[in-house]
């Protein structure tokens, strides 16, 4: 998976997620009866029926030669105290990862509060990393 350096600043973060913890939290945060938003979770057994799933299959088939972009996710707590998880982009890619039992994956998140909440919910490692920090490490490493 990849992220582009064009949005490098201190407002965009990468959060590494434990796939199972994220899946269960996302499923719990989504409507149980019918999917109302495109970013709602569905049962793992239904993910391959998503109308864009075939494009995710194709996208991931290229491997390191053409990595897929990170999904753009977020988290907040609504006025009723309910955790809300959602996506700006990348729902079907995330379905593909979960349906194929990927153990962990990174996502891109806008805003520190959202990134911290997502990390508390299902994160791995020390915590969110800003894109600025991530790319500064890469630059130093290859210069």
> What distance lies between the first and last C-alpha atoms, to the nearest angstrom?
23 Å
Low-confidence stretches: none
Radius of gyration based on Cα positions:
15 Å
As a percent range, the share of helical residues equals: 25-40%
Number of helices: 5
- Biggest β-sheet: strands ordered side by side in the sheet: 3-2-4-1-5
What integer is the average pLDDT? 89
Strand content: 15-25%
Shape: globular
Query: By helix and strand content, what is the structural category?
Result: alpha+beta
Instruction: Please trace the helix and strand order, writing H or E for each element.
Output: EHHEEHEHEH
Could you tell me the number of beta strands? Answer: 5
Oligomeric assembly: single chain
Biggest beta sheet summary = 5 strands, mixed
If you had to describe this structure to a student in words, what would you say it looks like?
Helices cover 36% and strands 21% of the residues. With 143 residues, the chain is an alpha+beta fold. The protein has a five-stranded mixed β-sheet. Helix 2 packs across helix 3. The radius of gyration is 15 Å and the shape is globular. It starts with 11 loop residues before the first strand and ends with a helix. The model has no long low-confidence stretch (mean pLDDT 89).
